[in-house]
């Protein structure tokens, strides 16, 4: 069986972007592939954090995985820091990672700019090396991620090829080694829709856990009235009618795409249904579809509760 790994950081609460871009797509995969889904707590400490909140968010994230339909009898579900080999491999990979590769990473540039110098630890820069070790450790074939992780995955691939070149293959053979690749070079699996859910307050930035304003995202566990309020207040535009794929209307494209994914309709059907609508008539439709889609996940999440078994 081909192998798949993926994970979400337990920082803040899981939002619609994490769900539509990642977790929702994991469900079907667990039937066909060998799957490992972990909670990447070591990635969550790359920016300032509170230890109690981190350990609670780690357990809550596990509950959400199960509530969304991850089946622990099919998939391996675990906490990254419980498997020490992730960090051991990271150290070995670090020595093969040119620092220039890390300096080019967009996420590092964005997060370090927002965090301010005093809060930028070395780990924020070396984050992609830990991500590479999460993936390469298991000789993974595919990695389902949102669009924002494409660059990190590309770095993982380049790093695997570099290690294979430096220590495997022909060069290694010359030194008396057995030869052959050390790491499998993994492929990204980026969903055709939902790979980049945008902020509710700015259609040009991605929805994010670390964005300061809670109004910018729909959290998976937001109560009905909060969802209704966020949609009521979200950014729109003053064009008439609604349409997909107009680059001048990023908010419109985003909200229609979210509606498409949570209602389970096709893009064509949504385009037809919404072309004659205005914001006033579309927003209640979107709100109802969101509430209806998230309700079973919310009910199920509250039925899973994890107690603390060790200090993290
Ligand atoms: P942070 O702001 O702390 O980085 P995040 O919202 O980006 O949090 P992560 O834990 O970094 O969440 O990402 C988990 C998964 O969710 C990754 O596969 C990532 O690609 C995906 N993802 C994150 N944000 C979005 C989004 N807006 N749209 C689609 N997928 C997303
Ligand atoms: Mg992220």
From TrEMBL:
Keyword terms, alphabetized: Aminoacyl-tRNA synthetase, ATP-binding, Ligase, Nucleotide-binding, Protein biosynthesis, Signal
Subcellular location, principal: mitochondrion
Top EC class for this record: ligase
Alphabetized GO MF terms: ATP binding; tryptophan-tRNA ligase activity
Subcellular location as annotated: Mitochondrion
GO CC term (a single one): mitochondrion
Entry's EC annotation: 6.1.1.2
Protein's GO biological process: post-embryonic development; reproductive structure development; tryptophanyl-tRNA aminoacylation
Record family assignment: Belongs to the class-I aminoacyl-tRNA synthetase family.
Protein name: tryptophan--tRNA ligase
